[in-house]
Design goal:
Blueprint lengths: L1 H5 L7 H5 L18 H20 L22 H22 L21 H25 L9
Helix pairs in contact: 3-4, 3-5
Length: 155
């Protein structure tokens, strides 16, 4: 599970996608896109945190889609906020890896907050985060290319 959570097997890693990203463009919204590069990263952060809470927090409260999964459209960040978002993502991925790799945990158990007929196992939730992050990491990389924001020589 470790490799799948971090990406890099069949998709670019988040670390590679954000490497040497120009700070002047943290808040840039690519053409025809209603969110900035930082909004996209913060969406990854919010969603992973929500799923971790869903798996294990007895006080979990469901969020409203889509508003609670994205920062406000007019929200901006600076370098400290950018770095805090990235560190939070990495921290949540570390927590997710710990859950997935815990030999005492049965990944086919239901997530703590699965209700009714939901067959939301821990494994399912780990895979949702993995898929979601891969999708948006690819989106970030493509938008970066559209905006010509890769360093010279990037392939």
């Amino acid at each position: 599970m470790l490799g799948a959570i971090d990406g890099g097997q069949a998709s670019m890693t988040l670390t590679d996608a954000i490497a040497l990203f120009p700070p002047a463009h943290y808040n840039t919204k690519p053409p025809n896109v209603p969110y900035s590069f930082w909004h996209l990263l913060d969406h990854i952060r919010i969603t992973a945190r929500d799923i971790l809470d869903y798996i294990q927090d007895p006080d979990y409260r469901e969020r409203a889609w889509p508003d609670d999964y994205w920062p406000a459209r007019d929200a901006t960040t600076d370098e400290a906020g950018w770095n805090a978002t990235i560190e939070a993502i990495y921290g949540d991925l570390a927590d997710l890896r710990a859950i997935a790799n815990d030999p005492e945990r049965d990944l086919t158990d239901l997530a703590l907050n699965a209700k009714g007929n939901e067959v939301h196992t821990i494994l399912r939730e780990v895979l949702v985060v993995t898929d979601h992050n891969a999708y948006h990491t690819g989106e970030f990389a493509i938008l970066r290319g559209v905006m010509n924001l890769w360093p010279d020589g990037h392939t």
